[in-house]
Amino acid sequence: MLKKYLYYWLFILIIPFISGCANRAVAELTPGTDLTKLQSFYVVKFAPDGRGVNVLIRDRLTEMGYSANTGLDTNIPDDVDAVVTYEDKWMWDITMYMIELTITMRDPKSSFPLATGNSYHTSLTRLSPEEMVAEVLTSIFSQSGGE
Amino acid sequence: MVDLRQTGAIKGIYSLIVISSLVFCVLLNAGCTTPALSRDMTVNNAVIKKKFPYSVSLYVQGGRQSEVGELPQISDEEFKKALVSSITNTKVFARISEGPSDYYLEVIIINISQWLYQSGVHVEIGWRLTNKMSDEIVWQKSIKTSGEAAALNKGDALEAAIKENIQRGLEQISTLEL
Lengths: 147, 178
Hints:
The complex is a heterodimer.
Chain A: H1 2-20, E1 24-29, E2 40-44, H2 53-63, E3 67-71, E4 82-93, E5 95-106, E6 113-120, H3 129-142
Parallel strand pairs in A: 2-3, 2-4
Antiparallel strand pairs in A: 1-6, 4-5, 5-6
Helix pairs in contact in A: 2-3
Chain B: H1 8-33, E1 52-61, H2 76-90, E2 93-96, E3 103-114, E4 121-131, E5 136-147, H3 154-173
Parallel strand pairs in B: 1-2, 1-3
Antiparallel strand pairs in B: 3-4, 4-5
């Protein structure tokens, strides 16, 4: 009898995993955006982020050959070509992992989006935060043939 | 010794738990995957200061279809339908054109922020209006709005957030000097 109910419970537990086994890596440029003109970036720290993803994004941009700094949205320099914002989402499965990362590059004056990239990896195909950052930025810059 | 698992009462409790769990999962999945619909995002009443006698063409981006088991999303098609209906209802522009027009309005979904166990949905949309004659950007702005709905009914919360965003966007356009 217990075995029968165990199967029911396994089925119930599997439902979210079946429906959630999706991976995604996409990016879109706003029409008219020329990413090759962007050379300096300011990464705004996402307020709820306590893991320093802003630093990972800054470091990756620097590795890619751009000038990049990071800090609070109250300290945005006047002379940057684009402001970078992001939102990271984490999930627990044995350990915490980053399930989704969205990075948006914006016009420094109006906040209007220039480009947006998003990566989504569930537990089985999880990436490290550094890899998630690299994947999203590569998706964005590959839209303009920059990387 | 009596095996409690074989008693009718225990069997009944097991059945109830299993059936409740199945119903919960079905409802949860249904609530997660229901995409946002244009009719529920259409603005009918807004504080429109000026109605412009110009035509406008629309471009939308950033939407996508909801995937199975995913929190609700909005497709570009539904979003554009809601925009067209809202502009038509509020009469901010005299005509919506699929071809040449006086103004070009780009509306780009930047981010939809939502969590399964939170009732609120946060939406950020970028708006940009360009004068087609002069090719000058006359207005561009990022607008953030939020929607709330009953627990797990993410579709309603998303629709409410987008509807408010469209309303605020059109209201701000109506204050411009075109």
